[in-house]
């Protein structure tokens, strides 16, 4: 079958393309952002990429068009599909129907930590000899690809609560029918499609409704919003995890989260010593370990595996260390993620200065839905340079004012880099935080440090 994928260079749709190609389909696709690393990964698989969304990209006529959720009515390719009555489907529905029905699906849901937890869970199952398939919404450190079929029964994937497509407003995860579902956390996000946290809770309950009675829910014991979701009704066994509560617990041996003890129902399992930082990553680790155990792996045997886990690209990725300045690239999209990430770094670096360059890039951040929470989230930063592009519809001045002289704004990336260069000194840790491209600001700053 010949598939044409609209939005093929997104991490999820690129994964769909790779899986379809591995299944033996002829695959091609279109996108407005055809650039590495996804473009090179897809081209290496023999997948033809066409820039833009013109109707001509769909000639000759494909057997099926897979439409990403970034596309909507008015898009030239979408209008051509509808006018010419081309068969079409969403990425999540195609995945659910063509691949997941025969697999043991392990789905990772939550506002934060989906990509890291999915990558870690796939690595644990791989290390246990279970040869999982997976679809990871990022570039994993332990695998050469972000998606593969795998030869074993398990299939691990991110279970995103964002809507499926312009013609299907259900959350993506309802298409996956997992046997094991991780509910990592739940906060208000995606202000462009959800009016409040209650609307997101309803979607999470739709996921709970399709986990079978002989399946397993792995739930954050410290999250009140998830407790309310479970109270709506639950028909599957539940195991909980947490640092302060839960069936699976951690006791921090290092304040930065780089070493911790694991217990299951008060039984000591052992100790984890790894490179990741922060309380949030300890929670991700507990969730992944509990899910791997539910899939049949021996949790005690997996603890040494954590030491070899290479995190996903752009999750506090250390990209430079020059002239006494360390530079990180972090995929920040929400105040809670910002706060927990910086808290982990603070525990690691002690009194050293932390300088943050922040781009409000997610839909919720750009809309100002989290504006009141940003200053408290940046409490561990000594200096902040906030990218306030002219098109940002809200005034970042209240954020910088709340940081009492520790923050400034910049109207563009060039001005932001100049401001950083003026304030950064030897011994500083500079964290670039954005869930967008940030115009390659982290690498441009690193190059500036190195000089000509």
Automatic annotation (TrEMBL):
The keyword Cell inner membrane does not apply. SUPFAM superfamilies: MurCD N-terminal domain, MurD-like peptide ligases, catalytic domain, MurD-like peptide ligases, peptide-binding domain. InterPro entries: Mpl, Mur-like_cat_sf, Mur_ligase_C, Mur_ligase_C_dom_sf, Mur_ligase_cen, Mur_ligase_N, MurCDEF_pg_biosynth. It is an enzyme of class 6 (ligase). Keywords: ATP-binding, Cell cycle, Cell division, Cell shape, Cell wall biogenesis/degradation, Ligase, Magnesium, Nucleotide-binding, Peptidoglycan synthesis. Residues 108-292 form the Mur ligase central domain. One of its GO terms (biological process) is regulation of cell shape. Pathway: Cell wall biogenesis; peptidoglycan recycling. Belongs to the MurCDEF family. Mpl subfamily. This is UDP-N-acetylmuramate--L-alanyl-gamma-D-glutamyl-meso-2,6-diaminoheptandioate ligase. It comes from Dokdonella immobilis. The lineage of its organism: Bacteria, Pseudomonadati, Pseudomonadota, Gammaproteobacteria, Lysobacterales. The gene is mpl.
């Amino acid at each position: 079958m010949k598939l044409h994928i609209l939005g093929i260079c997104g991490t999820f749709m690129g994964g769909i393309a790779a899986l379809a190609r591995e299944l033996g389909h002829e695959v091609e696709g279109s996108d407005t952002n055809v650039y590495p690393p996804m473009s090179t990964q897809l081209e290496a698989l023999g997948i033809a990429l066409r820039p833009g969304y013109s109707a001509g990209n769909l000639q000759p006529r494909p057997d099926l068009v897979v439409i990403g959720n970034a596309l909507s009515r008015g898009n030239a390719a979408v209008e051509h599909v509808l006018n010419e009555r081309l068969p079409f489907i969403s990425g999540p529905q195609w995945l659910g129907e063509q691949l997941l029905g025969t697999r043991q699906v392990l789905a990772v849901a939550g506002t934060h930590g989906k990509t890291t937890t999915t990558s870690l869970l796939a690595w644990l199952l791989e290390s246990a000899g279970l040869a999982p398939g997976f679809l990871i919404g990022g570039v994993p450190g332990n695998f050469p690809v972000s998606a593969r079929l795998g030869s074993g029964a398990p299939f691990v994937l991110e279970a995103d609560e964002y809507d499926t497509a312009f013609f299907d407003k259900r959350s993506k995860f309802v298409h996956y029918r997992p046997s094991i579902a991780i509910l990592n956390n739940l906060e208000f996000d995606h202000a462009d499609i959800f009016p409040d946290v209650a609307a997101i809770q309803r979607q999470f309950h739709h996921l709970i409704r399709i986990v079978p009675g002989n399946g397993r829910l792995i739930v954050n014991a410290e999250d009140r919003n998830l407790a309310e979701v479970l109270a709506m009704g639950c028909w599957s066994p539940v195991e909980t995890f947490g640092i302060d509560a839960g069936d699976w617990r951690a006791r921090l041996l290092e304040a930065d989260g780089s070493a911790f003890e694991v217990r299951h129902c008060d039984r000591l399992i052992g100790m984890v010593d790894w490179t990741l930082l922060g309380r949030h990553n300890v929670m991700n680790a507990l969730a992944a370990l509990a899910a791997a155990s539910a899939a049949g792996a021996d949790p005690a045997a997996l603890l040494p595996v954590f030491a070899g886990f290479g995190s996903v690209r752009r999750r506090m990725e250390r990209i430079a260390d020059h002239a006494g300045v360390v530079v990180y690239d972090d995929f920040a999209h929400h105040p809670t993620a910002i706060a927990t990430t910086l808290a982990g770094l603070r525990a690691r670096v002690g009194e050293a200065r932390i300088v943050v360059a922040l781009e409000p890039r997610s839909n919720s951040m750009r809309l100002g839905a989290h504006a009141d929470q940003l200053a408290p989230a940046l409490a561990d930063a000594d200096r902040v340079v906030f990218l306030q592009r002219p098109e940002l519809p809200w005034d970042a001045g209240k954020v910088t004012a709340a940081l009492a002289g520790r923050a400034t704004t910049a109207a563009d990336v060039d001005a932001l880099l100049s401001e950083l260069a003026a304030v950064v000194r030897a011994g500083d840790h500079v964290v670039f935080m954005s869930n967008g491209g940030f115009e390659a600001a982290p690498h441009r700053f690193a190059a500036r440090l190195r000089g000509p």
